[in-house]
Write a structure and sequence with these properties.
With 346 residues, this protein is α+β, with helices and mostly antiparallel strands. Helices cover 42% and strands 8% of the residues. The strands form two sheets. A six-stranded antiparallel β-sheet has the order 6-5-4-3-8-7, with no helix packed on it. The chain has a two-stranded antiparallel sheet with strand order 1-2.
Length: 346
Amino acid sequence: MKWDHKTEDLTDEGISTEMVERIRAGLKDLDQGLGPYPYDTLKKWVSLSNHISQDLVTRIQPLSGKVTSVSQIVQETSAVGSGEGEREGGREREVTGEREGGGEREESGGGEREVTGEMEGGGEKEEGEREGRGYGGGRFAGVGDFEPSVDSTSQKRRTDLPLFKSKPETALRFSEVPRQRHPVGASPSEISHHCMDLSYTLQSLMTSNHTHYRDLLGELQLAFLCFFLAHVYDAFEHWKELVRLLCMSESALSDQTELFTNFITVLHFQLKEIPDDFFVDIVSRSNFLTTTLQVFFACLEQGSSLDSRLVKKGLQFRDNLTKQYNWDFSSEPDEYAPTIVDTDCS
């Protein structure tokens, strides 16, 4: 690939076979201009990527082969309302993906127009909240995201809003965690069980997407690296979802000992790389890690039939986090208080 000064990006267009062979033949000539390999960080890199295989990278990476912090998005052609979603000039309208200052710039024909969440008329704003779990397939300014009680005028405004989705060739193709959390025909008590113990969902994910538990851990590592190094927020959302799924799969702890033993190791090295200020931000705003890990550690403590090595490693991990970050894993989270279970949980 070569640098394109016009697009300020790497491209393989205009590169002949002869040029490729000439560059390959002269690779050793580049050594004099390169610095030494940082072997002191090699061990750290291995601990963050040891479950990632070439096949996994090929399957998950964007079709373009490039991972970028901001995905390009296009307007969907199936928007309802006054025809906002139809193609213009026989093609989808492309949005540059820059999301700064509360708006986006949309390219349409020869000009640009700014796309914001602000509606005409009443001056209301729609946040454009994403639909899904953030695998690069996010949707914005969702049609049908209104409350049933709103009046028809407000409803019409919202259905006239355009829908956006990430361009497939620029989006990371992570495995989609099944939304169906319980077997078809499950009783209300079984639905309640599967909504609290996500082992069924974990098994469904592994059956449909992974041939070995290492592939699931590799996807967890790849999602973390895409966020940590490339600042891809969708990757962070997927990482959180996988962590939550693994931490809340209580029944699977006894059947997948190797998976969870290695999961603890993977998470240990990942948390060591997160800056302290970012870590504090998570604790103060959403408590995602403390709440999720609290469930995991409780399952380890209460599991009488679990492998003793797994339990010992998990509780050592808990003690290390408590000492390093002063987290409290002893009190029960409010979200696990008695509640009404929706029998349509999916």
